[in-house]
Every structure is written in C-alpha cells, then in structure tokens.
Specification:
The structure is a homodimer of 370-residue chains. Chain A is of the alpha/beta class. Chain A contains 14 helices and twelve strands.
C-alpha cells in the first residue's frame, strides 16, 4: 500500500510501540494508587508530560492529557467560555465549530480567510475594534487540509493586547514545523498523539499558567483536577515517546517531506485543469491539496484505493458525506472544484518511487476521459 | 508482588494484548477514512462492539465507546439532564457525584443506603411519591469498595413505572457476576475496559434504544454522532476481546474469586477488632472490605506495600487524601473505623498461597501493638 494520508492518522513508530509495551504487560498499576505498582506508572506519566512539554517549549505542569484532539479542543472552548462570546476562524476543525454550536451561540464571530486560506492580521485588527470583544479566539496553527500555516504570533499579539484569550489547534503543526507555545504567545494549544506517530486515544491541552480552566470530564480529580478519569497510561507513554522523537527528528523529517512535496508538485504541473490550493503561501512541508476541473474527488479516491493508494478528499472526519470541504468553500473555491479536491499528506516512510507511481496512476485516471 | 487491588485496575490479559498488537503495528488507518486501510479498522471496531454488546446482552448499536468509565458516567448524567432534577445513590463513584456538582444542582436527591450499603426498595418507593420526580436516577450495580450488589432490577421497575430514566454504573459488576441490561430494566449502563483485564483509556455507555443522548464530546460525529473524536482503535479492540473473555470465563472466574474470598474471610476472623463491611449482604465474589479498630488504613497499606503487597484503602481515585471513605460514611460507619478500611479485590491470577502470606503479614502488623 502507498499511504499518503498522514494528516488523517499516522502509523505508530516502532520505537513508540516498544516504549508502550511494558505498560500493556508488566506495569499495569492504577496511577492513583499509593503503592509501588501505582507509583511506577505515575512516574511514567510524568516522563511523558516532560517529553510533550519539551516539544512545544512549556513546563510539564502546563500539559493536561485528554483522550485526543477533539476532547482537547472541546475542553479549550467548551468550559472556559460556555457563556461568553468567542470567535473562531472559518477553517477550524469540526471539534472547534461543534463546541460553539453546542453552546448555541450562533452569533459568534467567524473569522474569514482569504483565497489562500490565510487569516489576515487586518481582519483581526478589525475584530478588536468592535464594541463587543470576544473572550476567546480560536485559530488553527496549520490547516489539516491545505496545510496553510497561519501567522498566529502576530495575530495573538494583537488579541492579547485586548486581553482576549488565544487558542490554537496545533495538531497538524507539531512534528512538521517548530512550535513554541510561548513564542506564539497563545494561551491554549491543542495537541494529538496519532498525528505524530503515536497511538490513537491520546491528546493534550497546553494551558497558560495564568488561566484556570473548568474541567470537561469530572470525577476522581486526575490531571490536577483538570481532567478526571483513570489515565490511558500506555497511550500517554506512547504519546510522550512520539513527542520526544518528533522534536529530535524535526529537521530531518521536515526536509524529507519537503523533498517529496516538491517532487509531487512538479509532477502535478503536467495535469491539465489541476490547481494546487494555497500554493503561494507558507504551508506544512508534508501537505498538498489540489483540485482538478471536472473530476469527482471521492470517485478518484476510490479509484486510487482500488490500486492500493490511500489519499483523502479532505478531513477524515467528514469522509463519505459527498459534501465539498468547508475549508475550500471558506477560501471562495468554486463548489465543483472543491468537490474534486484530493489531499496528499506525506509521512516518514514515503519515497520518491511512491510519488512516481502515484503520479503515473493519477495522470492515467484523469487524462483517460480526454 | 501480591496484587490484591483488581477493583482499582487489572493487568491486561495476554490474549487481549495479542488482539491489540496488530492495531498498534499493521492496521493503523483512521476508521473514518473511506479507503481499505480505514475500512479494516472500522470493521475491527464493529467486532469489538458486538463482543461488548454480548457481554451485557444488548444490540451492538446500543454501545457508545468512550475514553473510560468516567466519561461514560459523565455522558450519562451530564448531557441528558443538565437542566433536570436527578437523584443518585449515596455510594456512587466521584464521576457520578461530580457530574451533579458541576451542574450546580445542590438540591438533588441523594438516595441513602442502609448499614449494609444497600439501597432499600422502600427508599425508592418513598422517592416516587414525592411531588417533584427526578428525570433520572443513577445507582451503581455493584460498589467498588465493599462490593455490595444492589437490587437494581426491582428498583428500576418501580422507577420506570414513573417514566424515570435509570442509569447504572456496572463497571465493577461485569466479569464478576452475570449482567443483562434488559433484565435489569435500566436505560443507561456504564462499562469500563481496565477493570476486566482490558486496556486503560476505553469504556462504553450502553444506551436504551428509546433514549436520545446529547453528546458530551462534539466534532467529527463519530459513534453515530454520540461521541466525537478519532476512535482509540487498539483500545477498543482490546476492550472487545476482554469482554468476550469475561463472558466466556464468567463462571470459572467467579468461582475462583469466591474460593479466595471465603478463604480470606476465614483468616480474618481471628483478627481481634476486625469487621468485614457488608458481610451479610450479596457482594461481588472478588471483594472484601474490612476495618480494624484502632488501625490507620493508609499506614497499614504502606506497611503492606513495603512487603510488596498491593491493596487499597478504598477507591483509587480518592487515594492519599487521608479522608474516610464516603461510601462507609454513608453506611453510618464510625469515622475512625472507616479510616482503618482496607479493600482486598482478587483477580484471576491470585492464589490461596498469596492469601496465606497476606493473612500472616496482616496479623503480624495488626497484633504487634497488642
């Protein structure tokens, strides 16, 4: 199989599985237990917390483990501001949008993006001139579909001058570009394990020391009372190891991704009617999203699947709905073109040979009808 | 190590780890993805859903996977009734109590228990005579501390005549006694993986077909829109396998536990000032909770830990607080005696030899001071 859908999920790194295994076999204590078997796993969680903190340049105490990115996004938005005005960008993940809808605040500000998928700092300047300011603004660091990297630092600076809390979903950014919580000047940041070669079922919310969040899951008071529930120990240990490796190998991975992306984009140039979305702006090195005039994206995806190539039409969560990507629609892309979208997202194990094979097949499918 | 704290968490069964491994290595797709790698893991989730459904005698569609028992309890109580009156028994897990406190409903009815830790059907008869009926009642099937099994079926019958929704936390019951959702006549039931030799980080809420729940985690719309977030595939597969084994081996496990419990209780009889809580009522076969006049439970726990024996003073979640068990207090146990409580909970691998060793040590610690 040629797996080109790493923004949907990544395989677990063999070194991560190895780190997890003792916590699936030998060390099974409950981290809340006082005896030795409990203290051993508690200490493993502490190590993982340090590893994840190092990846985004914060202190370990700022990390709250969750069951994944969705829970972390929900935690950031749901509890802090359940009664307050919030603003979110038009290209956020469903777990950000749904948090707003759930709280039935249809009058929330949606921050628009330009034709490249970028939020303009000018839009933020306008936003902070309005009479009623939002309490929190949520803006993705890098988009899961087109890979566009937002100028979060500049925008967060403007917002924080007005005491607006800034949340960024950095799930797609970590492990691909350098991410520093403090340099970005944000207050809340969402992370996920299974997009950086860690296991599914584990994520984290990074929290500014000056912010008190209200927990979303309540009970035993784990995670310093910010997220109750017996910790997913093996998952957390795996997430920690994955974070350690992501930091260690960042340059090397990023260079590899960029090589593949350049190679693919060169190949794509010869396909008539093909448009690479957000081509002109800063994007994740591993992500290419393109549309092809007159092509049905999901149909193409299935044709590729027949040949054992895994790509996606956009977000995995929205798969199969037959709807055009809301990210592309927000960028003003024509609905027909948006429905033709294919996202390719590379991983560590991908090769140039795979790109050749993919390009050849893509060309044969697309140009057949001509 | 002698591990006598299976109500806090269990080791993962080797057969469960084996079932999980392919989903930590080979099959890493996102279950929401349309291509083959996605469909394979989707199908593994479906199988696990069937296995868990079989354990509690429901249809697969009634199972909603969560990140654990805490989330399932929160989901049951938080979303269905965030604005409604609820009643919960005095011996519930913190994740049930905290759901009520979070919603700031201090006027909720707390259903009392008798000196044996039993809710009396008479109390329920009184409850349903009150002018303002609760919308939901939550009562544990079997208590995590003293192991007391509640007469849920009888009480649920009374409540449902009044159209009151009945939730039961069955986390400690499954795998130890037969549990049938429909025979118990409940509407909602909480399950957890890591108490039945499955991995941590996975649980489920079983839902009556006639009930619409509002999701707690929102976003991509997984779990038929009842719980968003990329599924913890390996965890779910492990939970499924653990459920399959729990059903298959129920009689054998239960008989083994009872043998050990009888053996231990016999040994305990010779310790002066020792009281077995709830001794006269129906309890889980694997659980013994006792108090010893004049002894500090946490101190004893640490002395046992020094000798590599793991027991607990009560719920793992409440460990280290130095507070008396709220379950025992609700039963009217004197605070000093409650603080002396030790809970022993057996698992499949425990032996009579371990009980002999534990009893000998316990006697030497307790009788030393005399």
């Amino acid at each position: 199989m040629i797996y080109f859908d790493h923004n949907a999920t990544t395989p677990i790194d063999g070194r991560v599985v190895e780190a997890m295994l003792p916590y699936l076999t030998t060390f099974y204590g409950n981290p809340s237990s006082l005896y030795r078997a409990g203290r051993i796993v508690r200490s493993a969680i502490d190590t993982a917390r340090e590893q994840i903190a190092a990846l985004v340049d914060v202190q370990a105490a700022q990390i709250v483990f969750t069951s994944g990115g969705t829970e972390a996004n929900n935690l950031a938005l749901n509890t802090l501001c359940s009664t307050s005005l919030m603003a979110v960008s038009a290209i956020e993940h469903p777990s950000v949008f749904a948090s707003i809808n759930k709280n039935k605040r249809n009058n929330d500000n949606v921050i628009s993006v330009d034709e490249n998928g970028l939020i303009s700092p000018f839009t933020i300047e306008e936003l902070i001139k309005e009479p009623k300011l939002p309490v929190l603004v949520s803006m993705m660091l890098a988009n899961n579909e087109n890979g566009v990297i937002q100028p979060i630092k500049k925008m967060a600076g403007l917002l924080r001058e007005k005491k607006i809390i800034v949340h960024t979903d950095a799930i797609q950014a970590i492990g691909k570009i350098p991410v520093s919580f403090s340099q970005l000047s944000v207050n809340l940041m969402t992370l996920s394990s299974h997009k950086i070669y860690g296991p599914k079922g584990c994520g984290a919310l990074v929290i500014d020391k000056q912010i008190d969040i209200e927990p979303l899951l309540v009970g035993g008071g784990q995670e310093s009372d910010r997220r109750s529930g017996t910790e997913n120990v093996a998952g957390i240990v795996g997430f920690g190891k994955a974070a350690e490796l992501a930091l260690l190998e960042l340059e090397q991975r990023s260079a590899h991704y960029l090589l593949l992306r350049n190679k693919l984009e060169q190949e794509l140039q010869s396909i008539p009617g093909l448009l690479i979305f957000s081509e002109q702006v800063e994007r994740l090195p591993n992500t290419v999203q393109f549309g092809i005039q007159g092509i049905d994206g999901e149909m193409l995806l299935m044709q590729l699947d027949q040949k054992n190539i895994a790509v996606s039409s956009g977000s995995a969560c929205a798969s199969g709905g037959g709807k055009a990507s809301s990210v592309l629609i927000a960028m003003g892309v024509d609905e027909q073109l948006a429905k033709s979208a294919i996202r390719v997202s590379f991983g560590m194990a991908n090769t140039e040979i795979e790109i050749n094979e993919f390009s050849k097949l893509l060309k044969s499918f697309v140009m057949k009808g001509e």
